[in-house]
Amino acid sequence: MSNPALTDIVIVPMHADFAEQAEQLATRLQLPIKSPGEVHDFSLELQFSEQGLRLQPCGKKAPGPTYADFVSGAVAHRRQFGGGKGQMIAKAVGIKGGITPQVLDATAGLGKDAFVLATLGCDMTLLERSPIVHALLEDGLNRASESEVADIVERMQLHNANSIEWMQVQAKQGKTFQVVYLDPMFPHNDKSALVKKEMRAFRPVVGDDLDADQLLDAALAIAENRVVVKRPRKAPFLADRKPSLQFQGKSSRYDIYPLKKLES
Questions:
Q1: What's the confidence (pLDDT) of residue 196?
Q2: What is the pLDDT of residue 213?
Q3: Per residue in 54-75, pLDDT tens?
Q4: What tens digit of pLDDT does each residue of 12-29 get?
Q5: pTM for the whole thing?
C-alpha cells in the first residue's frame, strides 16, 4: 500500500499546554509546527486540542476535525446498544458462545471495528501503515486507557507497519492469528455526497489501497481459521476471489474465507 508523502501537513498545538507533545510528534514525524491562526499553505493541520489529537482539513468548505474517540459519541452508543454478538461483524469473525477469537486487524484506521471486537472479548492486534492515522489512533487509545473503557483497550495492541510486509515476516516466523480482518480503502468519487467526513480527511493522507489485492494472500498465509474482508456492498471481491461465506448489510458486506473451524 502506497504511503503518500507527508509534505502537506502541519502540526498545531491549540494551547500552550500542548506544546511539548506537539514538539515530540513533530520530531517523530518530521513535520513543521505552526501556532494557532498562523497563516500557512498546508492543506491539513494535525492539531493538539482538548479533544485530543485531531486531523483538520483547511479551507472554506473543509469538514470538521477527525479524531479517534472510544469513550463518547457513536462509539459509546454502539458499545452500549449495538447488538453485541448479534452484530454482523461479530458473526463474520466467528464470535459465538464461548468463542472470542484472537484477531489481527491489518487495516486499523481509527480502530472502530477493532474496538467493537475488543468490547466483545477478542484480543486485538492492530496494524496501521499511515504514520498520521497511527498517531491519531495511538492518541485515542491512550486517552481511552484512562477512562471507563480502559479494560477494553487493554485488549488492543497497536503497531505502525506496512501490513503486507508485516504479515509476510510473521508468516516466515511461524506466527499465526485465528482471524485476520481486512477493510482496505476502496477507490471512489470524492465528490459523492455519501463520502464520509473521515474518508475525505484521510484520502490525502493514506491514498487508495492500490495493492489491496495482495493483502488477501498475505492474510491467508498468517490466518489459522479465517480471513474476513469488509467491502462496500456492491464492490468486487478482493483479488477477484469469491468467498465461501458472506454476510450482507445495507451499505457493506463481510466476505469470509474459512480455513479451519473455530473452537472454544
A1: 57
A2: 86
A3: 999 998 888 889 999 999 888 8
A4: 999 999 999 999 999 999
A5: 0.91
Question: Does the structure show a pLDDT above 60 at 5?
Answer: no
Give me the mean pLDDT over the 152-167 stretch. 97
Q: What is the pLDDT of residues 182-202, one digit of tens each?
A: 999 876 544 444 345 555 566
Nearest-angstrom CA–CA distance, 225 and 72 = 33
CA distance linking residue 249 with residue 233, whole number of Å: 7
* Residues 6 or more apart in contact with residue 250 via CB below 8 angstroms: 233
Task: Count the Cβ atoms, other than its own, within 10 Å of residue 152.
Answer: 21
According to DSSP, the residues that pair with 258 across neighbouring strands are 226
Could you tell me how far CA 102 lies from the centroid of its own chain? 17
4: left (phi over 0), alpha (psi -120 to 50) or beta: beta
CA–CA gap between residue 29 and residue 69 (Å, rounded) = 22
Right CATH number for 73-258 from 3.40.50.720, 3.50.20.10, 3.40.50.620, 3.40.50.150?
Answer: 3.40.50.150
